[in-house]
TrEMBL record:
Listed name of the protein: Protein kinase
Species the sequence originates in: Anaeramoeba ignava
Residues binding ATP, per UniProt: K37
PANTHER family (UniProt xref): KP78A-RELATED (PTHR24346:SF82), MAP/MICROTUBULE AFFINITY-REGULATING KINASE (PTHR24346)
Key words of the record: ATP-binding, Kinase, Nucleotide-binding, Serine/threonine-protein kinase, Transferase
Domain Protein kinase: 8-261
Amino acid sequence: MQSSIGKYIIQRTIGEGSTSKVKLAIEPETGKEVAIKIIPKNKVTAKSTTLIRSEREIAILKLFNHPNIVKIFEVFESDEYLFLVMEYMQKGELLDYLISKKAISTTQSLFFFQQIIYAVEYSHSHLISHRDLKLENILLDSFGNVKIVDFGMAGLVDNQNLLNTSCGSPHYVAPEVVTGKSYDPFKADIWSCGIILYVLLVGRLPFDADSIQEVLIQITQNEPEIPSHLSPDKSQLLQGMLQKDPQKRMTIQEIKENPWFCSNFPRYFEQPKTQIDPNFFSPRKVENLSTSIISSLSRLGIDENSIIEFLTSQEANWVKVFYSLN
């Protein structure tokens, strides 16, 4: 790779996967550090999973504006590569941070957890479920604030609110997803947040084994061991979020009403507003629709005729959210 990409000066590689690399770069005019995700075009085709995930992530991150969700600044391409310019998270993955510290205080656990829940609530309010929430997909900025990343597997939820595609990381996946049944992706996200909270408070995963198959068996059959030293409020959260029956699982509103969750808000921590303007869901007239926005939405894997049907319907759906915020 060249030592510069567009206006950015490349510093070093900070991440690498099977289909992409992430480079730390600097914008010379401002001195701002950014992370550039680099995807070789020879590894993607028009219908490849990598391209679909990348386009979905681009669309979602351009839409979102939340202090605890990573921001995307710019997207451009060359003959050989696709480049995603994003916020640089100086302190890296939350997983690596926890490993380096070995143990953290309940105050710090709460600080991380509060930010995660408000980010997930924001995403859900826009009818988008993350579907791959895990410690590796939670990064920390220079101040130690949470930033959720990797929306490539996100579910775009319509009014039916059920999905069939199984996805996510084995240790964090909800039991209803393991069984292959239709599931509510928002409730599955809550389960994953419960796993994250368990690790923050207990220091280990609640379900772990030598093989993935055994982990999945534990998730569907075993109850998590709640340490007796945890306070009743913390235990209630873990038990409620890791409830195997999704209909009995805690909601985000119930999580926010938990006494421990409500305690010890830092003075500078403002609870972001997550309510969507009701007009986002109003049906639109065909003659007033923007062809450029419809074309952009079609990159998410839905044909233009279906997009128009969604936009002119009476029901709330994710297409209306994307359209309104474009």
